[in-house]
Amino acid sequence: MKTKQRNKWISISLMVAMLLALLPPLTASAAPVLNITNLYVHTDPNPADPPGTEFKDSSVQRFTTNPITLSVDINGIPREQVSEIYYEITNVTTGITTPNRTNRPVVNSDNNNQITFQNVELTEGLNRIVIKFESTSSIPSLPGWAYFTPVSNITNLKINDDVLTDGGMFPSSGPYTNVNITGNANNAYQVNAIVNGTTYEASNFYNGIFTFLTNTGRNTDINLKPGDNQIQFISKNPTNYYTTSRQFKYDNGLGFAYNGNVRFMSEAASADKKLITEPTLESATEKDITFTADIKNSKGNITAGVLDYVYAEISVAGAASFRYTFADASISNVNGTLSGGGAITPVVSLKDNTSKYNTYQLSVSMPLSLSATTQQIEVKLVTSAGYPNTPTTYLFNYTNPALPYLMSVAQQFNPIGGPQFEVNLSEQGTSQINEFPAKLNIYTNANTQKVNVNIPGFTGNGDFDVTQTSPGIYRATVDLHDLTDGLTTMTVIPKDSAGTLNNAGKKVYSLNISGAPYVIVSNLYNGKVVKSKGELSCGAVGGPCITGKIVNLPPANYPLVKLSINDVDIPISKTTAPIGSLIDSNGNFTITETALNALFGGTASGTAFTSLFDADGKKSVKFSLYLKPGTEEILVTQSNYDVFVLSDYAPIIERLIPNVNLTPSTDGDTTGSYLTSSSVLQLAGTLRNAELNTEAILYLRKAPSGANMTPPTLVANGGKQEVSVDGKSYKIDFGTTTYTMDQYGDYVFEIVAKNNSGRTTSKMITITKQPVSYLLLQPNNFVKNADKIDQANVNTNFQTVIIQADGAESVVFGKVAAIQTEPGKFRYDVANLKAGKNTITFEITRGPNKVKGTFILMNQNTPIEGAQFRTTLTSKMSVFNGDLQLSFPKDTKVMRNDRTASEQFITADRKLVFGIANQDDGRVDKASEIAFVGTRFLQEPTGRFRPASKLFWVDAGEVDLSAADNNDTLKAALQGSGNLPIPSNPGPGEKNFFSRYIKSIMIPTQHGTMTLKYDSDIRTDSWKYVTVYQYGTFLDPSGSGNQYVGWKNIGGVVDAKSHTIKVPVETFGYFQVMYMDNSFNDVTSHDWARDYLDVLYSKGVMNNKTTGQFLPNDAITRGEFVTLLVKGFDIPLINDDTSYHTNDPTNPNFQGTFADVRRGLGLPNSSSLFDFMHIEAGARTGIVRGNSNGLFLPNNSISREDAAVMIARAANMKVNSDNVKSMANLKKQFTDADDSIMSTYAMPSVEAVVKAGYMDGIKNVPVEGQKKDTFSFDPKGNMTRAQASAIVYRVMQQNSKLPK
Q1: Does the predicted model carry a pTM greater than 0.85?
Q2: Residue ranges of the SLH domain (predicted)?
Q3: Residue 576: which residues within 8 A CB-CB, separation 6 or more?
């Protein structure tokens, strides 16, 4: 028995030993290792490094565009800790170090030990890049090094004035054809756009602003596809470029597919890849894909209100297809099956149903076409007449990695005197190749015999042999040369031993070819400031010294390279015997006094170079590169560097010119002279190292006889720039106050700048004012039409015209004289413009001479941004095709907003101005208003609402009390009109919308009602989040009589069926429907009051207590509760017929009802939840009363029974006068209805508000055996904010302000 047991244990031991032998060996935990693989890696430069190991500047890669991709090998770092890896970049030139912890690394899907950082931004000069891993300690990599030469950036991208954001659908409104794309590209000389593989040049590019026209039918203009589009924008200057991309949907007003995604059928939706990027799907076994997309079916283009397209056909080219019919949501005409024989079963659902279109969500699994790498999915919509739309076509790649394949492609660098190194090309981004000839090493697996390389336009395209260069390493080498600059692709396809192409292993690389010659200057950058020429050193070589490299210029042309400093030529090559050059065979150069003397002999050349840096000031260093294909030298590029030698920071006046916005001008015959016809002068310029108006002073040296000799004052435009460490060197951009040139002739101005050391500099400018017959100043978009007549396109039934007619006595339109607002400037309102062409004539009188003029106002009469309409106030008004409606009681007029004044300016003749304004800066008429001024005022203040309608402007203008002083001004006040919100040439009494005086604004004599249409796409149930904002001038709610200007949430009653909202109107201003799309976390998570709280917050009835919290379960205060009741019952804050109109704080009637709620004083702890005016309104109407000491105690919490008393008063309820009966009734409902618990004074009110449905009880905790719920009222308990919201919600429902 023992022997058997022993044998059994021996057998088990042997089995365990065999299993252990199969396990992989355990290794010790390795220390984390980080290694940058695509940059030159070396420790910091150290003169003590042994020969052969020293830092090789020539090995440092040069970049000319941002951003770059960093490739990093890692070891010993768990996958879950990769997110703790970040990088730090030090600019060696400036000494500034910048860590970046937000740009997360991406792990290579095929190798967990490889990561990449995308979008790594370099700064100008030499960059030192260190990868770091922070765990218990910081572990850095060896530094990687990169030079960067800055490029022109691209900003402010817009499409038809909509900001061109990734993922958006544009244009946001019609017209849908001839869409314009605009943007800014400062410092560029060319801007291109690449769309669907085609490169386009900007249709217009001037002063840094570019425009691309689209879908014009011309080959030179961008052709956008309906649906998903991707555009890559490129801006270039002579030495570098910048690129940025946008993915968006183009809406052509018809039907199309968009948001296309693809993945393998077995994968989850999270694996979706955007089809706009032409992704690659790789698998040896997967043969089916899932395609998802949205489909837009437009309406009304064929038959009003009816869908344009009957069905959609969806297909994978060469594999399968089906048809979806929109009317009955049926699937038909199914062709093909899944790879396993399964049926194709599309799922299509209606997503949105609007008046303009329907959208549908599509998801379908379909087979791949196994005979092709490039797969095509097509979505085609067809009308009832059989006409298809422009089909939406998507492309993607399908590859099989089991066949021969590529591993990577790297660019090889062989610097002179330095070690060879490689830089991997990026498969995810765009790789730069900007030094030629370029050697590419293509690494493959062992199954690959050859690789086929194809680059459009490359003469070396073809097959390249793959050889084994070391164990396990297989490589082909390609030399690139003579490639066209710009973005291109390189397609690499592996071949097996039989010479068969394996398309499944194909890889396509995006290349940015920059073969144009350029210069890298290593020790200079624009704006560099030094105290002496000795600081312009080249490492250990003393200054002045200039060092760098010539790139991509054939060595035979090195002698043609020219250097100039402040336009003085400095030869750096000697073309006579003995021939020589400071540029070596690899393009490297170092220019010093010693090197120049050695090259040319003697000391003259070196001294000439050095002496240019002796004096203080700007040193413009310019390299010019030439080619000489024949007998003539051709300039190919120039690089400019402005360097400043400022031993004691001497003052420098860099620029002094007229401000073209206020003083349009042309250049005169001499430098620094300008010609203008404007009467208003404003100068602009740039100054260094002198304070405005103390150290730098503007003088008027000469002016025509009779002119004002007081010069304008210098005014800083922003703060100081490029400030040195000691603060003594800086740059200031400046303007001036305006100066009126009321005489014709020359005006000579001079700026004299002098610093503490006595160093002085000056600059002069001559402005010549020339006479003209007349100028049309407003609107500012007049152009000559085909008949050579001045024409301006407007979108209004009226137009204020301003004419400059110097020396004129009058300008008469018909029989009406224009108003002369200042010498030579006349203003006239052209009224009653009809739609279309309006020809206007006028006559200018100068003594015995008369000049007739004509212009055309073309009224577009279209209700889009910029539209205007002017009319007198009537009982019912509808403008902009009914988007805005106003109604007032009969006999409503307008008046000045001051009932206490002796003259109230009540009038039925004054006109209202309506406009549709720009969402960003509030301008209605861009041709007559100041740009961007309104932007900072019109910002939505909470960050929780977005626009849901057009931004409307309604205005009756402003009238100063002094207008009653004479008949002319009184007539203008009574018969005038409102004005534009930000007039660039304001007329009498016109002010910007944000700078008006509350008592001077004109308001309706009776309150009216405004009805606004809002976004028809907002769903019916979302009415609760819709409200109206008004921007205007309002009384301070503290009751001080002061005013505040800003947005006010005025709520509104929603008609969800008609998508309109109705609000009361007391004053005018901006109005816009808003949608609350960002609630509070403690509201959305509330178990029962979410809707109540959301609605009251959306309508401006209830506010949050802190910035990020609503705190619905907090006890509500007495002050906030009466405020909610005043708002909920729509109680006016002021009764103008009974209010005391006094601002005298000593007058008892001024102070208010309660001793602790004083007029004009902020209420402690109110947090904008309550204020004097709402509490005083509650007191005035009898809702609240104070205690025996005359106090209201607004910060005290309110009990539920006291809340009931306030509600009963606010609702004007009839309450039971018999407390005994009230208690008896309450006992039937609440278990705590008892004299000892509930106050006697509150019983009738509690009974009434419960019966009315405003309040209800609190459910009791059931006891054992209880079958029916019971409730208590908790009369002494604090009312919470959530409970209060439910009450006010019900109040508003019963008052028809909310739907029931």
Answers
A1: no
A2: 1076-1139, 1156-1221, 1229-1300
A3: none
